[in-house]
Predict the 3D structure of the following.
Amino acid sequence: MSTLRAFEAAARHGSFKQAAAELAVTPTAVSHRIRALEDHLGVRLFDRRVRQVSLTRAGLQLYPALQQGFDIFDVAIRRLLTPAERESVTISATNAFVAKWLVPRVANFRANHPGIDLQLHASDTVVDLASHAFDIAIRYGRGPYPGYRSDVLFADAYIPVINPILQVRSPQDMAAYPLVHFDWQKASPDNPTWTRWHAEAGIALPTTQAELRYSDESHAIQAAVAGQGVALLSQALVADEIAAGRLIQPFGPAIPGYTYHLVRQEQSSASAAVTAVMDWLRHHAE
């Protein structure tokens, strides 16, 4: 278990040093544990460079399963530690949705449902609701989700946004700044990318323009807020940033994204607490 825990932490941080700090051991101990795991499996899990490590193909295959497993352990233990007189509901959603949509609304939920504790599980890995560690999942895609009860929360769109300090007021002005990209985990022509946006706008995609790429959508949002470039982002996830004036949409078009779905197990009846959370989510999605 210690070798698996060391691998998961190092893969999540992309660093043996940061994994060691989390596990309260030395970087050398983390390296030895991962080497022992590699020897046991007979495969190399990390490419090691000076001050940097990255997952191999085998490491990329192992990491999501381990991450979900440890997350399930954590949720189950937290539930055992929750006082019996309080009800708890666990929601699983993507990292960006938790950070930019759910977290800002938690205070409202607590004010309206003081007897229910929300546990927010953020992961871009699809969780298994059959594990009973999660009550509700918010999935982003086309659907359907066979074997689950699924309701549409809302459809999303993607818009070009910038920090207002940048002098971008027309598509032609974008050439002076990097394009901020969010790299989708699965390649699809339906993904709301800059390539698709330029095609729908009837503008040629520049081949020499600087780029910034992020694997986490919330990081791409923060990059736009920091004025690092022009970003194509979820209208739902940047609504608060636009309302606060930290971002603006200088021009269109908006292109369709995917749809957020509220998903739970088909065969299990929802408790009063789970029903209250789902009703609250639907109300705020209107």
Observations:
- The chain has a mean pLDDT of 89.
- The domain at 157-256 is CATH 3.40.190.10 (D-Maltodextrin-Binding Protein; domain 2).
